[in-house]
Amino acid sequence: MLPREELLKGVENREAIVRVIDQAEQALKTWDIVASDFLSPPELAEVQQVFARLTEVELLPWGGYPQAERQRVAIAHADLPLETSQVAVAALDIAGNFLFDQATHRDFLGALLGTGIVREKVGDILVLGERGAQAIVVPEMVEFLEQSLTQVRSVPVKTRRIDWSELKLREPKKKELTTTEASMRLDAVASAGFGMSRSKMADLINSGDVRVNWKDITQSSHQLKPGDLVAIRGKGRLEIGEVSVTRKERYRVQLTRFV
Fold it and tell me: What distance in Å separates the CA atoms of residue 77 and residue 4, rounded to the nearest whole number?
């Protein structure tokens, strides 16, 4: 048995962690490879942090493609080798003519959940504009969705399983930049990285729209460090790179912005 109470101490995503602990205990008992449902980025980050303390359990996340945000986790005894092919995921094409009734990520997600499945069975959704979208799901939902998902907004759609080679991935655009700041405060560095005023950034932080390493941060004075990832809802992500101190004791920060 795993030290459950110790692992759960201070966690934010308790329900998700409990489910993965249950599955890890099953994997240790049976020596089978067990897969979690899809985890959101904050849940995945916390799961990995919690299980990093254990030597007997191995985790491998995979969401269908390298940049996937929502991922399942394969869980196994540490002596068993794990590969991404052991994380069962499937790709669906949701095709329709959205030229006159454009659908958003929320619309496609709403249509998927409207069939009766739960969010944890759905991974990333790639919106393709006027021709529809593609979605990553657990394989056991494929046949059901092929039959049940027939409309998104007012548009009739054809839902079918596709090969991974048909997945239309868009490489994230990234921009490298450097800023020099008096401190490593979140509001100072992030405002430079996202190209907005410090007061606007402070408003976003106070309203709960900013995450650092997938954790909600509501303090503008939060101190960043190299390797941190800052995400703002709807505005992309910012990776904190190398930090050096100038002669005037200011911080020169290398940044990479993903949009």
Answer: 17
